[in-house]
Amino acid sequence: LIISLVAIWLTSRYQKHTKKLANDKMMKELFTEFNQRYDIINNKLDEVSKLTLEQWSELSPKEQSEKEGVIIDFFNICAEEYHWHKEGRINGNIWASWYKGMNDIYNRSKVIQNIWDEECKNEGYKSYYISNKNEIFKKT
After folding, report:
1. % helix, strand, coil for the chain, step of 5
2. Local structure of residue 22 (DSSP, 8 states)
3. Smallest Cα–Cα separation from 20: which of 112, 88, 96, 100?
4. 107-139: b or e for each residue (b if 16 or more CB lie within 10 Å)?
5. Which residues of the chain have pLDDT under 70?
């Protein structure tokens, strides 16, 4: 009986440790992937976030389309990060840092805010797997 209890305890402990390692590995993979994807758009996103609405309207349709693609990529990354946080795959500390960064970018740019508003019309926010448009971004 004692041997059985020790075996059960050891098995349980091993399973918990294995599960933690798997979760840590997945979180690291997600962290690395999201940071790599963000690094690809970071400079272009920074440029867009500094444009005024007037400067945006002066861009050619082709330039607006290219820059809008970067913004949509940003929205997709943010939505995916939020999804994985809700699923418990991204811990609270990492999420808090990402959430602050996402909202810093969002709140410094009327252009990005307007494009988000357009994306969210007619429940378009649902394509980002959220239940309301204010779930990811909070205006300050």
Report:
1. 80, 0, 20
2. H
3. 88
4. eebebbeebbeebbeeeebeebebeebeebbee
5. none
**Beta carbons of 77 and 34 less than 8 angstroms apart:** yes
For residue 77, give both structure tokens: 């990354």
Predicted TM-score (pTM) of this structure = 0.84
Closest CA to 26 of 104, 107, 84: 84
Tokens of 8: 């059960």
Q: What is the pLDDT of residue 20?
A: 86
CA 6 to chain centre: 43
- In 30-41, which positions are buried (b, 16+ CB within 10 angstroms) versus exposed (e)? bbeebeebbeeb
Q: Residue 130: its pLDDT value, please? A: 92
Token pair for 49 = 């976030």
Q: Would you say 82 and 135 are in contact if contact means Cβ atoms under 8 Å apart?
A: yes
For the chain, how many residues are written? 140
Lookup result for tokens 């840092």: 97
